[in-house]
TrEMBL record, chain A:
SUPFAM superfamilies: E set domains. This is Sulfur compound chelating protein SoxZ. Pfam families: SoxZ (PF08770). It comes from Thiocapsa roseopersicina. The lineage of its organism: Bacteria, Pseudomonadati, Pseudomonadota, Gammaproteobacteria, Chromatiales. Gene3D superfamilies: Immunoglobulins (2.60.40.10). NCBIfam families: SoxZ_true (TIGR04490). Residues 7-98 form the Sulphur oxidation protein SoxZ domain.
TrEMBL record, chain B:
It comes from the Bacteria. Residues 53-155 form the Ig-like SoxY domain. This is Thiosulfate-binding protein SoxY. InterPro entries: SoxY, SoxY_sf, Sulphur_oxidation_SoxY, TAT_signal. NCBIfam families: SoxY_true_GGCGG. Coiled coil: none annotated.
């Protein structure tokens, strides 16, 4: 079970991919309200989006992206049934991967 | 003599221990995995420094061809939806910046050949400021900005 939700829709020759990831996205600047200590930085640094093993887009992020990040992008040349693959890696070295098909 | 060496050794291992703990707690963010993640740019405290380390220059020309969709007033700075779109040709990358954030550079998107210059995401904003989108085409930089008023800041708290 992966925590990345993907919707990929083909419309007028362009595929719009929308995805939601589940991640705390801590900047490292926020203080814990109970202990007053800084919460360590923990955020997604890189998201790689592939279609048919070709990289469509690479996103590099800081902690300035909201918690449970949303990302949408478009590309040309996709066809219904083509696979879409999203992989993220965070600053702790964790990584997650999900795949879906264009509809 | 032996005793003195023992002291030195102890000191040394203690120091190493402290560094280890600091790394473990994420105080020294270990740049462990990603070669492409531009640490200098993402840790830069102002926009020109961030742009220079990210794109090699901060000389961006203002262009109305870049469309930024963001709310005029964001009640919650922790979640500000931002969409950047342009009809320019040959866009290589798009960067999103909130210029009053502690580290202004929020995201950079490297577009592949088939990608359309369109990205949409949600960002955090510390306070009312401009959301700046920087678009790189070939060797030129273009930017546009839109002010977003923030009622409750989304960083720290």
């Amino acid at each position: 079970m992966s925590d990345i939700k993907i919707r990929a829709k083909l419309k007028d020759g362009e595929t719009e991919v929308k995805c939601l990831m589940s991640h705390p996205m801590e900047t490292g600047l926020r203080k814990d309200s109970k202990t007053g200590e800084l919460v360590p930085a923990h955020f997604i640094q890189e998201v790689v989006c592939k279609s048919k093993d070709q990289v469509v887009m690479t996103a590099n992020w800081s902690g300035g992206i909201s918690k449970n990040p949303y990302l949408a992008f478009k590309f040309k040349g996709g066809e219904v049934g083509d696979p879409i693959e999203i992989t993220w890696t965070d600053n702790m070295g964790e990584t997650q991967n999900a795949a879906d098909k264009i509809t | 003599m032996i005793d003195a060496k023992r002291r030195i050794l102890l000191k040394g291992s203690l120091a190493a221990g402290t560094v280890g703990v600091a790394v473990g707690a994420g105080l020294l963010s270990p740049s462990l995995v990603l070669a492409s993640w531009n640490e200098a740019a993402f840790h830069a405290k102002d926009l020109p420094t961030a742009l220079t380390s990210l794109m090699g220059s901060d000389a961006a020309e203002t262009s109305e061809a870049i469309k930024i969709k963001a709310p005029d007033i964001a009640e919650n700075g922790a979640v500000v939806p931002v969409t950047v779109e342009t009809d320019m040709a040959g866009v290589k990358s798009i960067a999103i910046v909130a210029d009053q954030n502690q580290t202004p550079l929020i995201a950079s998107f490297d577009l592949g050949e088939s990608a359309v210059p369109f990205v949409s995401t949600r960002i955090k904003m510390a306070k009312t400021s401009n959301v700046v989108a920087v678009v790189q085409t070939g060797d030129k930089l273009y930017s546009n900005a839109k002010e977003v008023k923030v009622t409750i800041g989304g960083c720290g708290g």
